[in-house]
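Allow me, if you will, to draw on your knowledge of protein folds for a short while. I have a record of one protein: its chain in single-letter code and its fold written as discrete structure tokens. I should value your view on which stretches of the chain appear to form regular backbone elements. Thank you for your consideration; the sequence and its tokens are set out here:
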Amino acid sequence: MTRFLLIYDFLTELGGLEKLMAIHARFLIRAGYEVKLLFGHIDPKSGSNEIFEGLELESYGTLKSGAPLKLIGGIMGANKLKRIIQPEDIIISYSFPVNVTIRNFKNTKILYLNHYPNFLYLPIKERIVWANTLTRKIALAYSFVLGPLTKHFDKKYVKINDLIFINSGFTKAKLDPLYGIEGIVSYPPIRKEFEPTYSADTVHKFRLPEKYVFASGRIIPDKRYDLLLEAFSKIKDQEVNLVLAGKWDDNEYTKLIALAQDLKINDRILFTGFVTTEELLHLYSSALAYVMPTPQEDFGMTTAEALSCGTPIIVWDDGGGSCEQCTDGINGFKAKPYNTTDFARLIDKCIDEAFKERRQTNILESSNKFSERFQEKIFIGHIKRLLGIDPITLYRRRKDDP
């Protein structure tokens, strides 16, 4: 049986990419393949999360150190990959460091591109802002010394892949000319359980307000929740609250609390911290709108999830992945880029016009192209073509399909 190895740097949190790997693994298993997920480092708590239930995970790092050093060590050869990877295995990589780590393997290789390495390609001013952690500062310093050489190898190791998937049309427009490739858009799929769902336990646990707009994801500087707080402070309806779900960076959380106090909205904001899938489904489904403050998000998994739960989205009209999902006036609204007054106006418009209730059918229908069924056909179909297999049987409805 053909085996696929899905490889990423490390599993220390459950972001969109980690969830995507689990979904891709299940696609491949349903297509009849054997699958293993490999990470340079695996945090036990993250590795035991429900999204990986039934999947085989293994750490390939050998250094007894933290994740960043294991990553560097893996690139330098301190890894178990020679013992794990067999010549007939097919490798799917999900990052620049993995591309470098597997450079000497002659296996059939597939690459899933989310974005370019920020430490190499962001304009210098943006790169300096991006470098807000110790690891990123080290990467920034490295880019000033060995950036040109590293770009050369990055482009070389991208182009040698036999098949390249890209997470959105927005990302494809940036990366195809950069790397001289013709990538295939394969949207991160929304898991089947993401549909309108209501949970009294969630309401009770978080003491949720009756009327709220919602945002979720890691609360870190890159996500620009400060823009969201500024916009929220300008909405007309003082009975509407803002709910923010996700694990937070302590420094960023402290800054946002201080900003909320300065804006006099701290009594209308609820930080939930980490939430379970069931809780997240309710938070999406019960919100008046899902608000995305991140500029030029590469895809925007959370906005697609919100749509699948029947909730309109409000995003920046900046061409980003989330903007790509929004049909203005049909399933949400697009605000003038980074204009918090316009963003606030559209939150008000969404609430005043009962937009969610009036457009519920349109909102749900707009999420269909991100469904597992639709994206599975694209993902597995292209892999079968790469392997010389007629993919037509994939499109026939299976007996166990819902």
